[in-house]
Amino acid sequence: MSNSRKVVKLFYDVISPYSWLAFEVLCRYRNVWNIDLKFKPALLGGVFRGSGNQEPRFVQNKFSYLIADLKQMSEFFGVPLNPYLPGEKGTLNVMRFVTAVAEKEKERGVLVERVSRELWKNIWSTHRGVTHPALLTEAGLRAGLSASEVEELLILSKSQQIKDKLKSVTQEALDYQSFGLPLIVCHVNGKAEVFFGSDRFELMAHRIGEKWVGPHPVKT
Ligand SMILES: N[C@@H](CCC(=O)N[C@@H](CS)C(=O)NCC(=O)O)C(=O)O
Question: Which CATH superfamily is domain 6-208 in?
Answer without folding.
Answer: Glutaredoxin (3.40.30.10)
